[in-house]
Amino acid sequence: MPKLYRRSFNYWYPGTNAIRQIVSSYEKVIDSGDFLVISEKALAIAYGNIYDEDLIKDDIFTRAITMFLNRCIFA
């Protein structure tokens, strides 16, 4: 029967050594071959691979396609 372990971590800022924190937190409860599920967003922030969406400017074509999809397809 699979066991579920959940650990709380502090917020990971860019440059955080997430792997070291994960290993030190779980090294006593996991064995070789076990699965470890980690939030993709948390790792993206720790590795600095996240961006501010306000910096991306959209054009008229993008707005038109978005309006069409939201009103006609996803309505």
Descriptive tags:
40% helix
Provide an overview of this structure.
The chain contains three helices and no strands. It has 75 residues and is an all-alpha fold. The chain has one domain (18-73). It starts with 17 loop residues before the first helix and ends with a helix.
Low-confidence sequence ranges: none
> Using only CA atoms, what is the Rg?
20 Å
Order of helix and strand elements from N to C terminus: HHH
If you average the pLDDT, what whole number results? 87
Quick take:
40% of the residues lie in helices and 0% in strands. It is mainly α and 75 residues long.
Annotate the secondary structure layout.
Layout: H1 18-26, H2 40-46, H3 60-73
